[in-house]
Design goal:
Two copies of one chain form a homodimer.
Chain A (H helix, E strand, L loop, with lengths): L5 E10 L19 E9 L6 E8 L4 H11 L8 H6 L1 H9 L12 H22 L3 H6 L12 H11 L3 E5 L4 H15 L4 E5 L6 H11 L4 E5 L7 H11 L5 E4 L6 H9 L5 E2 L8 H14 L13 H16 L24 E2 L2 E2 L13 H7 L5 H9 L3
Parallel strand pairs in A: 4-5, 5-6, 6-7, 7-8
Antiparallel strand pairs in A: 1-2, 2-3, 9-10
Pfam family, one (chains A, B): MR_MLE_C
Keywords (chains A, B): Magnesium, Metal-binding
InterPro entries (chains A, B): Enolase-like_C_sf (IPR036849), Enolase-like_N (IPR029017), Enolase_C-like (IPR029065), Mandel_Rmase/mucon_lact_enz_CS (IPR018110), Mandelate_racemase_C (IPR013342), Mandelate_racemase_N_dom (IPR013341), RHMD-like (IPR046945)
Chain lengths: 391, 391
């Protein structure tokens, strides 16, 4: 039975010193330390089950999100899990409509990332109490339109056909160098394989159109994050110019809420929609975006990588495939083979495909030892690094 | 001479227990404690001049903004003020493009409010070193297009003609009650005086159109914040429906950056633009919005009230009048007679008009005694209140 009073909420600042190896850097994020604000919920049930929730961050600023989680804690503590999930819409609204806290959002920035971490923990706890992986909990919900129940095997077989045939190149820093590298890659992979480009918000609107027109000869499937994630009409202008050249616009990893996604869809501003499991307000808000994308017939290709993003988002794409879109056409999900060893239920990839997770929960739980070592600034890893830097 | 190395940055969490008196509450913000993250900058010049910067908050969450200010501090400390203002664009970009911190924004939410507080302090310090009120510093800048230099007196005379002839009513909670109250107020003020309505984001898009169509008979000049501040296309739909009924859309106090304002203007989504001196990235970003508004011929009517918003924004509207719009048509600036006693250079209102401030700086400095008493949670005011609440 689902239930139990939430009697404990703790939050940790966990950072992995990835900037030392230059992992995951791009034109705008040059020295990321992949990090997470990591929330742990406990109940008074005595079944030993805890809920774990993360939101992904890049190092500095994680302490700001931790602070925001603590500011939200009073909305969660002493609530019964049964009441939360019984009126999840009401609970979601309570968190995002706090009459004082909403001023520092609303529904954006640090406080929304904190909301995601807290709600991710609630979903993990709920799925664990139900004894199901999160994707199965979602698929079994009656209110979700079940298009058809495709066997899990089909997921893998479809993706297997592709194998690793998709490549992404970062662009936007230097046009001549981009031309050189894109030509090299296209020559290497041949004309049939899929090439994607990612500008990480480097351009303004006319610049994006001009630059990509010059890269069109290399037949990219999409240009990702061509400009400010807030510029819906800018994305629409870029789409209008590039779609005739065969290039779609992909964006979403820094879109801060469903209202922005709604407008991107309304304005025909994107051809590929990239949800982020930790920036939107958890499963709740991601579901609303999946349903909107279905309505507009736009494929969802989630952002992943980071810390735990692959672990979380696999539940959402499996749900999307089984219960919403029922299609793999033009759909893919990022994968980076990095930092999975810190998770208790890491993703399993076989033949270039995510395998549906079978453990109960949202795959959000990290290994205790990893958390201890990487806590900032007191974990062993950071104590040593900071001492070496003379801090 | 302008200059000096920034050798100190401190930030305070200052809260006024305004919720006790029910001041400033609305449909979405029911119990605000008007508060500020208050930044103090010191240089090594030895002239005794400090820069003071605030951002406005509503109580809970101020500690999150304080935390974000501390996360930004390393971009400011040890910099020379001359170098900062010599390449202010570069400095602004440095703050908003921090490769790790921008993930928790970018340019929105807690980290952007913190940016505003820090930059407000920089502008205050600069204006003080120049010995000018901020509006005069701006007016004297050569890069600003000077339309004409209207004598200050004209500002006051123009506004005096109006006196207090403008009234605003909060709507959105109950339609029948709104009709009753709007009828009462319109009957009271007569057909000539200006009535404005404010929904504080309560509605979705069709609801806003339907509700306001039913309040149109009371001839409101505008409906303020009819829906989510992120919904640019929604505001455009509402504008399109209401402008033929003689009702304009006003919004902006929760628009989080210039990119959103750009789109609101492009989409014809508002007829009155309400900047906020503490939500946007200080004077820098507000200037870009004032110039865009001029280009689209949309009047700027700033949001004020709160803590210190009137003190700050008066500089911006005076600059707008003298150097950008050169017009008072359809322009007004909110005023609430509240909490000014805590400021060292409070606004002066005569005959329903803001008087141009004459003291050097951005009017951001609070009285030391007020700050001490209202610091959260250790100031006397809060120690007593929290003890009374048994915390």
């Amino acid at each position: 039975m689902v239930g139990g009073r939430i009697c404990g909420l703790s939050v940790r600042d966990v950072r992995f010193p990835t900037s030392l190896g230059g992992h995951g850097s791009d034109a705008m994020h040059t020295d990321p330390d992949y990090s997470a604000a990591y929330v742990i919920l406990e109940t008074d049930v005595g079944d030993g089950l805890k809920g774990y929730g993360i939101t992904f961050t890049l190092g500095r600023g994680t302490e700001v999100v931790v602070c925001a989680v603590n500011a939200l804690a009073h909305h969660v503590l002493s609530k019964d899990l049964r009441d939360i999930v019984g009126d999840f819409r009401g609970f979601y609204r309570q968190l995002t409509s706090d009459g004082q806290l909403r001023w520092i959002g609303p529904e954006k920035g640090a406080v929304h990332l904190a909301t995601a971490a807290v709600l991710n923990a609630v979903w993990d706890l709920w799925a664990k109490q139900e004894g199901k992986p999160l994707w199965k909990l979602l698929v079994d919900m009656k209110y979700c339109r079940k298009v058809k129940l495709v066997k899990k095997k089909e997921l893998c077989t479809e993706a297997l056909k592709d194998g690793w045939t998709r490549f992404k190149v970062k662009v936007g820093a230097d046009l001549q160098d981009d031309i050189r590298r894109c030509r090299l890659i296209r020559d290497m992979i041949g004309p049939e394989k899929i090439l994607m480009m990612d500008a990480n918000q480097r351009w303004d609107v006319p610049e994006a159109v001009e630059w990509m027109s010059k890269l069109a000869e290399f037949k990219p499937l999409w240009i990702e994050e061509p400009t400010s994630p807030d510029d819906i009409l800018g994305h629409a202008t870029i789409s209008k110019a590039l779609v005739p050249l065969g290039i779609g616009v992909a964006t979403g990893e820094q879109c801060h809420n469903r209202v922005i996604f709604k407008q991107l869809l309304q304005a025909k501003a994107l051809q590929f929609l990239q949800i982020d499991s930790c920036r939107l307000g958890s499963v709740n808000e991601n579901l609303s975006v999946l349903l909107m994308a279905k309505k507009f017939e736009i494929p969802v290709c989630p952002h992943a990588g980071g810390v735990g993003l692959c672990e979380l988002v696999q539940h959402l794409i499996i749900f999307d495939f089984i219960s919403v879109s029922a299609s793999l056409k033009n759909r893919m999900c990022e994968y980076v083979d990095h930092l999975h060893e810190h998770f208790r239920y890491p993703v399993i990839i076989k033949k270039a495909s995510y395998m549906p997770p079978k453990d109960a929960g949202y795959s959000t739980e990290m290994k205790t030892d990893s958390v201890q070592k990487h806590q900032y600034p007191d974990g062993d890893v950071w104590k040593k690094l900071l001492a070496a830097q003379g801090n």
